[in-house]
Amino acid sequence: MGDKMKNSLSEKKLVLDNRIYSPEAVKLAAFVFSGRTGIKIKYGKSASQALIEDQASGNASGEFMNEVLNQQCRIDLAKKSSKIAGIIVTKALLSAAGEKR
Amino acid sequence: MAQRTAAKKIERTKSGPPDALWRKIGGTYLLTNDSGHYAWLGEKDFRLVMAGGLTERHPLFSELASKGFVRNRLDFNDIAAKWKKKNAYLDQGPGLHILVMTLRCNHKCLYCQSSASGVGDKKTDMDLGTARKSVDFAFNSPNSGITIEFQGGEPLLNWEVLKGAVKYARERAQSTGKELRLALVSNFSLMTEEKADFLLKNEVSLCTSLDGPAALHDKNRLTPGGRSHSDTVKWIKYFQKRSGKQVPEYRVFKPSALLTVSKYSLPRHKEIIDEYVRLGLEDVFVRPLAPIGYARRLWDTIGYDAGEFAGFYLKSLDYMLKLNRRGVFIREKMAAMMLDKIINFKDPGYLDARCPCGAAIGQLAYNYNGDLYTCDEGRMVGWEGDDLFRIGNVFKDSYKKVMTSQATKGCVVASNLEAQPACARCAYKPYCGVCPVYNYEVQGSLWGNIPANDRCGLFKGVFDTLFTLLKSPANAEILKKWVTK
User: CB under 8 Å to A56, separation ≥6 — which residues?
Assistant: First the structure.
């Protein structure tokens, strides 16, 4: 996946290549994880770094990577489908609000 | 010149790759498209079609062309008409309005938060002023058909206000000219002849909870005397009898029941369905339990994963088909709603499986104090102390403000399948929907992470089962009857 991990006792460092994972995707994933575990993020020219507290039970760093991938896929999809997605959302909201279309 | 002629010939005979979604089930491929059409293809044909190599001479050409899978033979009028019919809700606004008459309940069901509010604690009762204001608010919806569902807690614990709300809603329907449907969801334990008469005369449809035979039902739905099942059954029989004797003055609806599948239900599909048949009920809604609100805390005790539910669902459906073959009409409600989309290209009004989901734009939940939530699930999250899905209050906020609130917009955007990476290319996109409340509760964001989402696994299991059953002409005949009744 183009990322490297370094282990410490309870913290993992993830290096996320900017060519694959945009800083925006990393930030969104960190937001989703904000209530779950401690995360520190550092943005660099070619990669972002995430320092994650892995709890004794669970695999927070692995799940965080899944979430970064999820967010990146969302961003990529939005570039292709934002027009149709926008039409559906606008139609649904305007109709519900009783606005004439 | 010769090359150009050859290229033109290929253009005429080959169709180009279709705009289709697909899924491999067993050894065959299911193809679907946005208008809702589907087709099955073997490995060889699938490769040919997806490579855009289908020619007019191919035996599948006319079927695939008529279903919109041949790029240069698209009937745009048909595609647009089917899409519009299936997604008619996009033009309508909220039709379902859930009024929580009280949070009190005389049951302590394993999976419900209502038991948290004691029977004597009337501070969580809706007062008449709030009920009337809630009805007024519901009639602000541009939808020409308004359904008001009274629930709780146990709504019959707040009977006088419920009665007042029914009368007021009828008045409002008359003055606005809107079509009004009224529904009551009750455990029936506090039902009396007098209450029943009032409800029937006001054309309130009646729905109760029935989790199966007595031992199972009473294990899920605890009462001090352990009489939940017998009370429920007594009144189901009563309302069945009344609906059998229609009167000219008003319509008497058949009673219906909702099944909540807990871990204890999983090995008992036959007994549950037999109980429904015994009571003359024609629909069993095999509803999965969601780890939302109070049920989330107890998930280890009463919950299950998507695979376990899929197994239960398949066995239940299989048994119902067997009964239908023996001449007993019994249908599974979720299947019927999905089949309405798959076979009839219709919107069955199933708010949990649409794009975007029904949160706020299809339904509103009115708490006892007038607080408004995107849906009942959102209200349950609120009850646990997180008001993310609260979108206003009937006394303080205008209808327009509620419909344009951040939570409303957030739910609509997050449940748009065109913007969900896994859903946008899923074969079940034309029929499915995601739930932002579930995503938030289980995965920490309105968007969720669909490939790792158990609700997605659960719906995929349901769709796999339905499409596989539709391949058999004998099963398809029964399933089609479920949606032509």
Answer: none
Report DSSP letters for B186-247, one per residue: --STT--HHHHHHHHHTTEEEEEE--SSHHHHHHHEE-TTS-HHHHHHHHHHHHHHHHHS--
Mean pLDDT of B156-170: 98
Q: In angstroms, what CA-CA distances link B5 with B15, B53, B56, B471?
A: 17, 18, 19, 42
CA atoms within 13 A on the CB side of B476: 8
**How many Å lie between the alpha carbon of B169 and the closest alpha carbon of chain A?**
20
Residue A8 has pLDDT above 80, yes or no: no
ipTM: 0.88
CB within 8 Å: A96 and B93: yes
pLDDT for residue B349 is more than 50: yes
In this prediction, residue A2 carries a pLDDT of 45
Name the pLDDT band for B116 (thresholds 50, 70, 90). low
A94 touching B, CB under 8 A? no
Q: Are A90 and A83 in contact (CB under 8 A)?
A: no
Residue of chain B nearest A82, judged by CA positions: B419
**Distance between A98 CA and the closest CA of chain B, angstroms:** 5
Are residues B361 and A92, on separate chains, in Cβ contact within 8 Å? yes
Nearest residue in chain A measured CA to CA from B414: A89
Give the per-residue pLDDT at B180. Answer: 98
Q: Is the pTM of this model over 0.95?
A: no
Phi, psi of B423 (to 5 degrees): -75, -35
B126 pLDDT higher than 90: yes
- Sequence-ordered list of residues with C-beta below 8 angstroms from that of B136, at least 6 positions apart, any chain: B172, B394
The confidence band for B472, taking pLDDT boundaries of 50, 70 and 90, is very high
Most B-contacting residue of A94, A100, A101 (CB-CB within 10 A), to test interface: A94
